[in-house]
Write a structure and sequence with these properties.
The protein has 413 residues and is mainly alpha-helical. It has a three-stranded antiparallel beta sheet, covered by helices on one side. The chain starts with a strand and ends with a helix.
Length: 413
């Protein structure tokens, strides 16, 4: 979790400095204001470069964490001690980075540290949601249930990501193949045809319009390949730097929600993740204010995150969660109504689980429809591009044959 240095003004008007951890600058500022302070400045501090076990090499995926939680829950439920569980899990895991981290956590626990506090040292592996659920299980004495719910949540998240990635794989492969075919024909085959026509006496000015267009494109690519490649790389780097800024991230997240076709899909994915995460936290006994703060940091969209934090502030002031969500206009009426009903009936966690199931099904349907629509478009695009190139290459040959046959007839006369 990032650490921020801040300067605040207390109730007496005196300036005070301090530091604290939070998911983002906005969350920390909101937390300080709720405590009655006026925020003068907040700046993220760079943590000292400390070498952690397994750090820097490899990665720990959601699947690894899901298996880790499932096995952990089973052993805790069987009455195995916490330290022994961690030792066995370190031996069984196939991920070297996770193995080193679990061994370090085992040492921390043996020294008297809590499991959740030990995991908090590795924010890139154990998210705020992960640590929050583990802490809730420790406090409530139901660690095995929290780990089981966490495993189920991670499995759902892995499945959702897999479906999205699988649906996007086909169009990406087709686009890569189409680009490779077009560049291969334009850069290697077309110049040989043009040289052949030139050797046979044809002048470039006499080529058909389609052939001239293709030749101009070939010359442009051959003469400007390096500058264009550098320009693309610079654009990608600048774009990534832009979306890392607060303003850029907000603009990009708003664009992702409003872009045609894909915006609706991204919106449904965000709603499914919001509902699943909040429902999992609430059913594990995490207080709603803490749960909403955690959800705001894990929903991966600043627009939705802002709406969640607004709802959190409204709850602190005695309002219901549904009203601020409705005002944000990014939560459909059905979601707001189900949340309101769940809040009134005391079954908010169950309602959120139903909402998550509904939107995950909606994502499945949208992905299937998108794939079905993209497939013929990709085929037409690929066929049209290749067909245009082939026709453009053979048109001069047709003209040359017609000229030769016409000339031969005149000689006979």
């Amino acid at each position: 979790m990032p650490t921020f240095a801040y300067t605040i003004r207390d109730q007496t008007g005196a300036l005070r400095k301090g530091s604290g951890e939070a998911e983002s600058e906005n969350i920390l500022a909101r937390r300080l204001r709720e405590q009655g302070f006026q925020v003068a400045s907040i700046k993220q501090t760079k943590a000292p470069a400390t070498k952690k076990p397994g750090g820097g090499f490899g990665r720990v995926g959601l699947t690894d964490l899901s298996i880790f939680c499932r096995q952990f829950s089973t052993m805790i439920d069987a009455g195995v001690s916490l330290v022994r569980c961690l030792s066995v899990l370190a031996e069984q895991t196939a991920n070297n980075k996770l193995k080193a981290i679990v061994l370090d956590i085992q040492k921390e626990v043996e020294a008297g540290q809590t499991l959740s506090a030990s995991m908090r040292k590795y924010p890139r592996v154990f998210s705020n949601l992960f640590v929050g659920l583990v802490r809730a299980g420790e406090v409530g004495g139901v660690l095995e249930e929290s780990l089981q719910r966490l495993s189920q949540f991670l499995e759902k998240d892995v499945e959702l990501r897999r479906k999205v990635k699988s649906a996007m794989t086909y169009p990406v492969i087709v686009m890569v193949v189409a680009t490779a075919i077009v560049l291969g024909l334009v850069l290697f085959i077309l110049p040989k045809f043009m040289q052949l026509f030139t050797d046979l006496g044809m002048k470039p000015d006499s080529f058909p319009v389609m052939t001239k267009m293709l030749m101009d494109f070939s010359h442009f690519v051959l003469n400007n390949a390096i500058p264009v490649g550098i320009a693309v790389i610079i654009f990608v780097v600048l774009f990534k730097m832009f979306i890392r800024t607060k303003f850029g991230k907000r603009m990009y997240d708003r664009f992702k929600l409003n872009v045609p076709v894909f915006g609706n899909l991204n919106h449904k994915i965000c709603l499914a993740r919001f509902s699943r995460t909040l429902g999992t936290l609430l059913v594990s006994g995490v207080p709603i204010l803490q749960a909403l703060e955690t959800v705001a940091g894990t929903v991966d969209n600043d627009i939705i995150s802002e709406a969640v934090l607004t709802a959190r502030s409204a709850i602190r002031e005695g309002e219901r969660i549904g009203d601020p969500l409705q005002k944000s206009k990014y939560f459909p009426p059905m979601v707001v109504q189900m949340i309101s009903i769940g809040e009134e009936s005391g079954a908010l966690d169950q309602m959120l689980t139903k909402i998550a199931d509904f939107y995950e099904q909606e994502v499945d349907t949208a992905l299937a429809s998108l794939t079905s629509a993209i497939e013929p478009i990709m085929i037409v695009f690929l066929g049209g591009a290749v067909g245009f190139i082939v026709i453009a290459m053979f048109l001069p040959l047709v003209g040359l044959i017609q000229g030769l046959s016409g000339g031969g007839g005149d000689d006979e006369k």
